[in-house]
Amino acid sequence: MRRVFTISGMGLLAAVAVLFWLHQRSTRYDFIIGQAAARNGVDFYLAKALIYEESWFRQESRGTAGEVGLMQITPAAAADFAAATGFSVHSVEQLSEPALNVEIGCWYLKNSLERYKDSPNPMLFALLRYNAGETRASSWLRLALEKPPPLGASAERHYLSLVDYPKTRAYASRILKRCRSRNFLF
């Protein structure tokens, strides 16, 4: 009988250790995210959900198109940030630094939200821009304006159905869901 308790106790201990690790991983950058989100007028949970999706809170993340860091910043986005703010970004390695990476990402997200503030769903179209670029996001917005959601249908689901890139559609949907649920563990 004692052996069963020991095995169960070890399983419980392992589960607690995993949950602690997940909590630490998902809250490690909360201060940085909170500061950058506040400076840029961006919802904390939206920025955090985007980071979860882009890098799963791994600052060393690198994408196939040259994106780096927590928010997967591209050199082009860093150049836009530098031109707009006067802050000079000297290297790709510098972009991996969490504070700078999140600042640029929140700045870009703020610009995306402002760009689509008059759209039927600014948050959705900002995320589409973040993932697929302004040209594609604007074309999906034109479609959304031409084809309003049917009566009784979810507007967000309808707008997502107009996105002809399945990965981008799933990306935006996951971020919006995570932002609302505020679940950053799983």
Topology:
Layout: H1 2-27, H2 30-40, H3 44-55, H4 75-85, H5 92-95, H6 98-115, H7 122-132, H8 134-146, H9 155-161, H10 166-181
Descriptive report:
There is one protein chain. The chain is an all-alpha fold. The chain has a single domain (30-181), classed as Lysozyme (Orthogonal Bundle). Helices cover 69% and strands 0% of the residues. The protein is built from 10 helices and no strands. Helix 6 packs across helix 7, helix 7 (122-132) runs antiparallel to helix 8 (134-146) and helix 7 packs across helix 10.
Gyration radius from CA atoms, angstroms: 19 Å
Structural class: mainly alpha
Report strand %: under 5%
Kindly provide the name of the CATH class.
Mainly Alpha
Largest sheet: none
What's the assembly state of these chains? single chain
Q: Give the count of helical stretches.
A: 10
Tell me the domain tally: 1
- Poorly predicted sequence stretches spanning 5 or more consecutive residues: none
